């Protein structure tokens, strides 16, 4: 199949500007199982050999993670494990080891599956993405990136270059859990990530990202508002469920039912909040 394999970013962006129909390919773990891979008329732009799109570094804005960084690298990286433990956790359950050795963070985002494991975590951490083209770069809050089922706001001449994840508060509680048919090698029926810091009346960070409960990965804003708006105590379970019900649009599909998804989602929220219920907050005094 027609295949371009540039070594430098400028070359990759110039090729894409000339041929916006090129399909970027990173680890290939989604592209190669696409039934139309290699179909007549399809041309590919391999990013695998492009320098400077891989790795994790500390910046004033937070951790910068290159789009080509693999799940194996993310799951083991000392900076990710220290600052973003929920992302290290989601990377370590993205497929099995062979997949993790090839699958990239950029590919996981760009494939735009509502069931993907890392997007809810990036939403909970308040990440932004950097889209690059021959015309320049733009930073987009990740919460604005998915525009519909398997759709994103990426333009055909752009590649996803890196993901910037701000440092969470030092004493934040980080949570990630994926519920699937099996413990490993299963696509999620529900995934929840949470980053929580502060206490009633002085919240610093209350963010929940969810997978597999709507057409896109979602940031649960109504749920967060129900919690931050409750001054003295954790909202009752019914209030949490009502707020979550406004955020999600769970559906029946081959993996699960909408009812099961709603029940599991609220159970995961309760689990994420359990330390708060017992300690009264997530801050330096605990
Ligand atoms: C057996 C198996 C198990 C899996 N298990 C899981 C799982 O448990 N959890 C999960 O979330 N996913 C899972 N996946 C899906 C897949 O492995 C991940 O989505 C992976 O992160 C994709 O990364 P990649 O580098 O292989 O992407 P690719 O296949 O190379 O690309 C995926 C999509 O992103 C686009 N793309 C890639 N990189 C860029 C870029 N930098 N800029 C612009 N567009 C880009 C491609 O054009 C394509 O549309 C599984 C896949 C397989 C085959």
Lay out the secondary structure:
Layout: E1 3-4, H1 9-18, E2 23-25, E3 44-46, E4 56-59, E5 62-66, H2 71-76, H3 78-83, H4 85-92, H5 97-102, H6 105-110, H7 119-124, E6 128-133, E7 136-141, E8 146-148, E9 151-152, E10 159-165, E11 173-179, E12 190-199, E13 202-211, E14 218-219, H8 221-228, H9 237-247, H10 258-279
Helix pairs in contact: 8-9, 9-10
The site of flavin-adenine dinucleotide has 28 residues, from β2, α5, α6 and β10.
Keywords:
286 residues, alpha+beta, Enolase-like, domain 1, five-stranded antiparallel β-sheet, 10 helices, 14 strands, binds flavin-adenine dinucleotide
Concise synopsis of the structure shown:
The protein has ten helices and 14 strands. By secondary structure, it is α+β, with helices and mostly antiparallel strands.
Mean pLDDT: 93
Structural class: alpha+beta
Q: Helical segment tally?
A: 10
The beta-strand count equals 14
Distance between the termini: 58 Å
Beta-strand portion reads: 15-25%
CATH superfamily of the domain at 173-279: CO dehydrogenase flavoprotein, C-terminal domain
| Helical amount | 25-40%
Order of strands side by side in the largest beta sheet? Answer: 4-5-10-6-7
Shape: globular
The main pleated sheet reads as: 5 strands, antiparallel
CATH-defined fold name of the domain at 173-279: Enolase-like, domain 1
CATH architecture heading of the domain at 173-279: 2-Layer Sandwich
Bound molecules: flavin-adenine dinucleotide
Topology as a string of helices (H) and strands (E): EHEEEEHHHHHHEEEEEEEEEHHH
CATH class wording of the domain at 173-279: Alpha Beta
Radius of gyration: 19 Å
Unreliable runs: none
């Amino acid at each position: 199949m027609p295949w371009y394999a540039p070594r430098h970013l400028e070359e990759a962006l110039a090729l894409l500007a000339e041929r916006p129909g090129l399909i970027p390919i990173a680890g290939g773990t989604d592209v190669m199982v696409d039934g139309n891979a290699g179909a007549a008329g399809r041309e590919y732009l391999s990013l695998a050999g492009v320098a400077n799109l891989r790795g994790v570094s500390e910046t004033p804005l937070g951790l910068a993670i290159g789009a080509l960084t693999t799940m194996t690298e993310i799951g083991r990286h000392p900076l990710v494990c220290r600052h973003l433990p929920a992302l290290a956790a989601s990377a370590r359950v993205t497929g099995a080891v062979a997949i993790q050795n090839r699958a990239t963070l950029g590919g996981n985002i760009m494939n735009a599956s509502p069931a993907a494991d890392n997007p809810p975590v990036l939403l909970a951490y308040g990440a932004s993405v950097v889209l690059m083209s021959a015309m320049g770069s733009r930073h987009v809050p990740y919460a604005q990136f998915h525009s519909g089922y398997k759709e994103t706001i990426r333009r055909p001449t752009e590649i996803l270059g890196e993901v910037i994840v701000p440092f969470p508060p030092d004493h934040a509680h980080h949570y990630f859990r994926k519920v699937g048919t099996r413990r490993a090698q299963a696509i999620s029926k529900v995934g929840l990530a949470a980053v929580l810091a502060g206490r009633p009346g002085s919240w610093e960070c209350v963010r929940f990202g969810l997978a597999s409960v709507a057409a896109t990965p979602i940031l649960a804003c109504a749920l967060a508002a129900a919690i931050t708006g409750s001054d003295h105590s954790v909202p009752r379970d019914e209030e949490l469920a009502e707020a979550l019900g406004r955020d999600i649009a769970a559906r029946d599909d081959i993996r699960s039912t909408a009812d099961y998804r709603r029940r599991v989602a609220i159970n995961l929220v309760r689990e994420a909040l359990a330390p708060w219920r017992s300690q009264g907050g997530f801050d330096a005094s605990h």
